[in-house]
Design a protein that fits this description.
alpha+beta, 181 residues, 3 helices, 10-stranded antiparallel β-sheet, 39% strand
Length: 181
């Protein structure tokens, strides 16, 4: 019994710091600690999607500036299977169309690349002035359609977004408040 306990304790001590994880309806939140001799910080992330679908995700680092000066950027992240391209292509744009007002949309540029394993990846990049507007729309909506060109390639649920955003920001020490849009 002592041998089993010692082996478990040694394995736990050798493993990297474990991340905390929470679920809020269709959204997930995780924190990852970063320890150095000088500082201790957290990366806090909220997302929906995955399991073959793109991710709609936000990320903050507790050592960076935060609201009201800088708000996290919501971005779509796409990972293609081996030997397939991403639907989002370099130089293109994605459009975010929300359920509450189909005449309102936001556009973001696309960055795409081939990773070290030879797999295609892509992500959207909102303009800085659109970060807060996007978060306000996500808080207001129930879902958002994500279009690349004439193709809707993902409909992301926003159920649980507000709680996930609040938890992510709270864990990294930032204000939870989103000013009304």
């Amino acid at each position: 019994m002592r041998l089993i306990f010692a082996a478990c304790a040694a394995a736990l001590a050798a493993s990297p710091a474990l991340a905390d994880y929470w679920n809020y309806k269709d959204w997930h939140v995780a924190t990852e600690p970063h320890e150095t001799e000088q500082d201790s910080h957290l990366t806090c992330r909220a997302w929906t999607g995955g399991d073959g679908d793109p991710l709609l995700a936000l990320e903050v680092f507790s050592g960076d500036a935060g609201p009201p000066d800088v708000y996290p950027m919501a971005k779509v992240q796409e990972y293609a299977p081996r030997h397939y391209p991403t639907l989002m292509q370099q130089g293109g744009t994605v459009d975010f169309i929300f359920d509450f007002d189909r005449s309102f949309s936001l556009s973001a540029g696309i960055n795409s690349w081939i990773n070290e394993e030879g797999l295609a990846e892509a992500e959207s990049a909102l303009r800085f002035q659109d970060h807060l507007v996007m978060l306000q729309a996500m808080k207001q909506g129930s879902w958002v359609e994500i279009w690349a060109g004439n193709d809707m390639f993902y409909e992301a649920s926003l159920s649980g977004f507000t709680a996930a955003y609040g938890k992510m920001m709270d864990e990294c020490g930032f204000s939870l408040a989103l000013p009304a849009g």
